[in-house]
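Item description
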Amino acid sequence: MDIIKKPILTEKASQLTEKFNRYAFKVDHRANKIQIKTAVEAMFGVTVTAINTSVVAGKAKSRYTKAGFVSGRSPKYKKAVVTVKDGETIDFYSTI
């Protein structure tokens, strides 16, 4: 099971990083906090002090096409906000 899918790079997530030394990730929906902690520590070599998880509901999407009105949903996902020990940082662009 690939636990960490990708980092969330939004304005809100970058504000968390600047103010509170927290990083947001999209993670596997079956992963628990212990598995997420070990995966982040192994991948980035940092010390994790706290983890908050939430399931983000998918947005309802619709559009009008030649065939008529089409509606659907984007998929839901699990988000993990990871707090890292003071003085340590995660550089997302070095692992590309």
Remarks:
- The longest strand covers residues 48-56.
- Residues 4-62+69-89 form a domain with the Alpha-Beta Plaits fold (CATH 3.30.70.330).
- The mean pLDDT is 94.
- The chain has two helices and six strands.
